[in-house]
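Record passed on underneath.
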Amino acid sequence: MVKLPGHASKTRTALLATGAGLALVLVAFLLVYFVLFPTSSPKPFKLTPATTAAGVETSSPAATTSSDAAGRWSVAAGSQAGYRVREKLAFLPAESDAVGRTSSITGTATVRKSAGDVTIPAASFTVAVNTLKSDRSLRDEKIHEIGLESDRYPTATFVLAAPISLRESSIGGRVVRVPATGVFTIHGSSRRETLAVELSLSDSTLEAVGSLTFPWSAFGMSAPSIGGFVDVTEHATMEFDLRLKHTG
């Protein structure tokens, strides 16, 4: 078969044009995705009224005693947990928060009174990270395969490792800030961490809000990147708003 002069050159030109066209389509998509329709990020969880210093209560007390609050508490409706990371489009200087959350959370906590002290001696929670949703379906699909790899590691857990101590005067719906130490298991890796938790406890409601920021490598993950066009910074934040009901 005799090739026509310039056939190879035309083929190469066509392939280059096709590649350039695909690249332009991808760039246009990303511009629309991040610039024309920027991410609408929910604010971090926060209890109100917030404390102004560690252990300082700022709201009015309710008529509740520690014995009313003692017992077992279980995760209730309204609880949420998820991630917050900084995304950057490769050729733009601005960054934005990508936030994914889920209400698929199970777990319990125990409140105990002994000799005038109020403690939370035990607590454990499991989050179904394979149900995390953000404002971008493409992002939600990708974290099943990269970064969090939620198809391989569908849950994340927290188990309290040291009792949380509360002053009896903090019972009654006041908001206090306390340290909580426990073992986080994310992406199949476990680490003991201490974080500050905003906590409010009354006879019928227990709410705990907090977050943990860590390098991706701390839990054996790599910061995800989509085709080199969308990059995520080297730190991620896990955040939660746990609302529990008194069950016994």
About this structure: The two ends are 86 Å apart (CA to CA).
